[in-house]
């Protein structure tokens, strides 16, 4: 593994804190959910899920496709004949793909996305992708990854997708700063402007993975230094390192502090001083600080409990604690990647209770005992907890809402202030009932 470029000497924080590790019943969307944002990000790609009608219903309902839209995802349905081995699933898949590409000449990259049903019947989609790619290149490249929900969390669908792109990235030894992780276009544009103003050495290019179009896929090689924009991209990071790239260790660009540290780490990796980052980001930091100041009173001292959901929990908890004064009761995450989270853990308040994995009943018991002011959890837990008098925040909103960077810091804080405001509006005492 390549040497990681350090950000700064770590403080204590929660770097060596004990972690509650739980394995039991868990509630989370499957990796197919990542298609909802990936099909919008990669503009000439198509995602063909090889799965059941349940898979199709999940994607269609989660994406909320308008009636006149022509989405860039679909499901090749595995029916009873496929599952029973009475039909050749590969022949059926070839037929569906051929018909799809005839109808949609705009497709340049086709992802065959595995699901629980396709994995159960041992359908080899990697071999199918190789076969179909040979048939349709150079017009269409066919790749595959697994979106199965077996023992994974839903953001790992993006990790698997991006990792599948790394082998087809061209090789280049040229110096490059690569930002890794699917970001809303507006956030990507903001980061591109800030990074471009840092004054990186001449000849250094700035790339983003995934690219918006297949013909803009960046190259990779020994000259590539990469920054993770999302904390759940462990497989993608390993794949890039195998191609010779080096990861820049940094907190994630969430909140003013996280974004500044992220940019500072990028600058330092290319020999650019922190004073340049200070100058380039001054106005953005000032705007964000003013916007956050309006929300600090609402969130200061509020006790937060995070159920594991997306792997965004630790960076967001750091932001709420250090920039808004919230108190962290428990921060749960589906998987704790200590190497990728080293800088974040160092910034968490010492003594923060951390948990990894999930056993729903045990975590519910702890949450009920703690009675936090805000409980961050999945949709399946939110309504029952609200019925018990606990204020909740849907964790899925933190994935679908732009939350990275300076301009979005107040929007992220607002997501947590809103349920408290709603609770206050509903809190007036109920008039006593008239005597019977």
Describe this structure in words.
By secondary structure, this protein is α/β, with parallel strands linked by helices. It folds into three domains: 19-26 and 295-426, Nitrogenase molybdenum iron protein domain (Rossmann fold); 31-152, 3-Layer(aba) Sandwich (Rossmann fold), CATH 3.40.50.1980; 169-278, Nitrogenase molybdenum iron protein domain (Rossmann fold, 3-Layer(aba) Sandwich). It contains 17 helices and 14 strands. It has helices spanning 35-41, 53-63, 80-83, 89-103, 116-120, 125-136, 156-165, 185-196, 234-242, 255-269, 274-299, 313-324, 342-347, 360-370, 379-387, 397-400, 409-426, and strands at residues 19-23, 45-51, 73-77, 109-114, 141-146, 176-180, 205-209, 224-228, 246-247, 303-306, 327-333, 353-358, 374-377, 392-394. The strands form three sheets. Strands 1-12-11-10-13-14 form a six-stranded parallel sheet, with helices on both faces. Strands 3-2-4-5 form a four-stranded parallel sheet, sandwiched between helices. Strand 13 (374-377), helix 15 and strand 14 form a beta-alpha-beta unit. Helix 7 packs parallel to helix 9 (234-242), helix 10 packs antiparallel against helix 11 (274-299) and helix 10 crosses helix 12 (313-324). The chain is globular, with a radius of gyration of 23 Å. Residues 1-10 and 430-436 have low confidence and may be disordered.
